[in-house]
Amino acid sequence: MTERKAPGWLLWGVLLLLVLAQTQAALAKDLKDGPFVSGADVFAALLFGAWALWALATGQWRQLRWPPLGAGVLVAVALVAAGRADSPEATKSAVVDVAQYILYFVCVYLLVLNALTDEGRVWRVVGLLGALTVVMVLVALGQYVLWADPANPDETFRRVSSTFGLGEVIAASPLGQKLHLAGKSSRSIYGNYLLIVLPALFSVGLSLRTPKWTKPVLLATVALGMLTMLSGYHFWALAAILIALGLRQGPRPALLLAAAVVLFVAVSPLVFPRNYQANVVELMDFYEEGVRDEAAITDADFAGGELPTTTEVKKRWIEWQPALNMVGANPVLGVGTGGYQLHIGQNYGMLPNFEKIEPDTNCGWLVIAGSMGLLGLIAFAAVFYGAYRTAAAQAARASGEALRALSAGLAGSMLGVLLAMVFSNVLVRGLSITVIVLLALVSAVEGFGRPERDSDAAEANPNDTSDGG
């Protein structure tokens, strides 16, 4: 077999792309109405162009590894569904969305997959992802402790620990304001990120023996991430995935983790009232229309002023019915790629259509089904379910315990994507690139993580202290 090669600058480009994605920084003509152009997306397109020219000039295009067939099918469905656009505005939206599908599921996928030519490069990407997550969780912890608006405690509850990265910090800086940078985030995007990334870091953290500081840092990051995650649906989904990953190490770690989750929830009404509000009260009050328990969400030195006694019914759940109406009327190819927001108002019927909506709370599955039909829904699910099955298989047969642990964690991450889509959408802002990086890691590990290559893997992976059996 001809050896695959990749220039060193390609790996550095992928690492820089991952960093840029976490900032959420975007150029905006208008900070309120946009349009917004993601800096990470622009960089990804430029990097892909440079690498494509290199591959053609050197003949390396013959040895390229390609995304799985499912990714191509998803892009094809997006292209066909775009033909359903019924207005100039819908056509413009379709072009933008199709371009993003091609950028993420073809260009970025190819970049990452072909940059990871050996196991050592995989661990560099995983290491950077871990470091970025540590930074993000520490920023969120700072918000959790310090960020409060006494004049608007309810909004503070919504926003604390919501930042997905450093985008809001950058956008608020003098340079960010001068360049019209935008970096808005939400607790749903932060919850999505943790639900998708923490399973991989948790599994790796449980298995690594060297360096000694790695395990406590990663496990502490997971714990602080769950503390600062003020979205109950994400919290419980992540807890279930982590407990399942703990079973891989035996019943004791899983039982300890389950006990820790139960203890945390039990003491949260007194010690962590905001977490109790998010993880229990909101979850039980499914339609968000019940009376709030003031004691459950008030911390004496957290905020002053009066709390509202009721909450509005949000579109988070009420929008599911018109979304289903949209799918029922356009079951095969939807209303057109990118057309969900343009058509959702027409499907409310007699339902109340409130103006306010918490950001990023649409059901991602219904957004895809509404815009690209059941064909798009099946194609999207097949990509990530296929990756889940691949990673789960690698967790049992990959060479070396470190690779097996990473594969198990990636399987948890793919399951996290499938679950996160119930509560929000994973193809938003900088999160899209992170999702594709994890998806490409699954394919990369499958490519060189087989038992017959134990000797090569042992040389490439300094963390592997097992016998490779």
What is the string of SSEs from the N terminus onward? HEEHHHHHHHEHHHHHHHHHHHHH
If strands are numbered along the chain, what order do they take across the biggest sheet? 2-1-3
Helical proportion? 55-70%
Query: Which spans have pLDDT < 50 for at least 5 consecutive residues?
Result: 149-165, 179-183, 290-313, 452-460, 464-469
Radius of gyration: 22 Å
Domain count, please report it. Answer: 1
Mind explaining what this structure looks like?
With 469 residues, the chain is an all-alpha fold. It has one domain (8-230, 315-460). The chain is 67% helix and 2% strand. It contains 21 helices and 3 strands. The chain has helices at 8-23, 39-58, 69-81, 88-115, 119-146, 153-159, 167-172, 174-178, 187-207, 214-228, 232-247, 251-271, 273-284, 294-297, 315-318, 320-329, 340-343, 364-397, 401-423, 431-448, 454-460; strands at 26-28, 36-38, 181-182. The protein has a 3-stranded antiparallel beta sheet with strand order 2-1-3. α11 (232-247) runs antiparallel to α12. It starts with 7 loop residues before the first helix and ends in a 9-residue tail after the last helix.
In a few lines, what is going on in this structure?
With 469 residues, the chain is an all-alpha fold.
Labels describing this entry:
three-stranded antiparallel β-sheet; disordered C terminus; globular; 3 strands; 469 residues
Per-chain topology:
Layout: H1 8-23, E1 26-28, E2 36-38, H2 39-58, H3 69-81, H4 88-115, H5 119-146, H6 153-159, H7 167-172, H8 174-178, E3 181-182, H9 187-207, H10 214-228, H11 232-247, H12 251-271, H13 273-284, H14 294-297, H15 315-318, H16 320-329, H17 340-343, H18 364-397, H19 401-423, H20 431-448, H21 454-460
Antiparallel strand pairs: 1-2, 1-3
Helix pairs in contact: 1-2, 1-5, 1-20, 2-4, 3-4, 3-18, 4-20, 5-9, 5-10, 9-10, 9-11, 9-19, 9-20, 11-12, 11-13, 11-19, 12-13, 16-18, 18-19, 18-20, 19-20
